[in-house]
Amino acid sequence: MENHNFENEGQFNRQMTSRHLQMLSIGGVIGTGLFLSSGYAINQAGPFGAILSYLFGGVMVYLVMFSLGELSVAMPVTGSFHTYATRFISPGTGFMVAWMYWLCWVVALASQFIGAAQLALRWFPGVPIWVFASIFAILVFGLNMLSVGWFATAEDYFSSIKFYAILVFILLGLLAVFGLLPYEGSSSAPLFSNLTANGLFPNKFVGLISVMLSVNYAFSGVEMIGIAAGETDNPKQAVPKAIKSTIGLLVTFFCMTMLVLASLLPMDQAGVVEAPFVTVFEKIGIPYAADIMNFVILTAILSASTSGLYASSRMLWSLANEGMISKNVVKINKHGVPMRAMFLSMIGVIVALVASIYFADTIFLALVSIAGFAVVIAWLAIPLAQIGFRKQFLKNHRVDELEYKTPFSPILPWITVLLLLVSIAGIAWDPSQRAGLYFGVPFMLLCYVYYYIRFKKW
């Protein structure tokens, strides 16, 4: 598939390597979803239930990436799954998926900036939250103005910082769990007694399924491997390698991190007001460790925001490249950056950011809910597109001609679809998460209606 449908509008630079893809994906995933929303998961589902929900989310995203891997290797294009949905499901669905994913990152970026500003208030409590949110937004925009090579290198360094920081957290946390480090409030080794202190599922099935949306949001960003395939130097080798290494690493890190947090934080002490990582370090009592971790989390969130603006601008560019919105957005500058698409994405972020500042007490979980719903809809399109692609491919080709195959197709993709639908159904069980349905479903329908009115087809 062509990576650019218009002439004289500039070209993307294929400068990303497999490592760049891996670190871009890690950069997009490890943000507020892990560092802040993990506390919410423990509070709602209980310590054991939180671990189980993150493990389930990891398995689900692994299944999604099987399908995306097959599509991205066969057709490495910028914008990826929007283009695949357009071609193998329906043009209207492709249009809707692109806007849902764009909405996901616009809303997520607003929550990322608010989350980062909340962390900064630990050191500067008298500064209005909008000041730090604005500074961070300008910084992220500036990083995205760099050429894709420099951008990928910068994101590589940022992602490495949080990778090693989480590794240190897991090691120190496990030492505290086994009593090799002191932990405030415990005279003996906490071990894993906290996991069942309130029962395995204190809020029963409702508590478990209600956190799945925030868990999906925590894993959002891993699909950037597919989005960036069109800017990768050797996608047929880089994409499968990045998928294999990134997913395994992320699932291991997320589950180990949740094991440490759930073992050390009781349900009633976990929430989203303060980062649970900072709380754990404060209780371990390592000098300045909490402040250091606060800084690391801050840089991690900014790294995730940088990846998020990259993803949202490329998705908007892909819409223009497919002729679904104005051709003017297709323009790419000499550094390989779609500046017009990035400007429009940033305007959307500012609108969401202003709304979040004026409703700071309640907007955070609502924003996570909307972003989580949007990313699951985008994920849902990936296995459905893979099923359609495989049917079309087999009309003139053999399966062994595919360089990357989704195993057990089409059974595994259909299982993926079913699991994603179950996670969407879980939204209705939690009043604080229902904003995803209230805002997400009407937005989906609006996309279909607009597309039909303009193009006279679904």
Automatic annotation (TrEMBL):
UniProt membrane topology term: Multi-pass membrane protein
Keywords: Amino-acid transport, Membrane, Transmembrane, Transmembrane helix, Transport
Top-level taxon of the source organism: Bacteria
GO BP annotations listed: amino acid transport; transmembrane transport
Residue ranges of domain Amino acid permease/ SLC12A in the record: 20-458
Parts of the chain that traverse the membrane: 21-42, 54-78, 99-121, 127-151, 163-185, 205-230, 242-265, 285-311, 341-360, 366-389, 410-429, 435-453
Record flagged with keyword Chloroplast: no
Name of one Pfam family that matches: AA_permease
One cellular component term from this protein's GO annotations in UniProt: membrane
Family annotation (InterPro entries): AA-permease/SLC12A_dom, Amino_acid_permease_CS
Subcellular location: Membrane
Protein name (Swiss-Prot/TrEMBL): Amino acid permease
Species of the source: Streptococcus varani
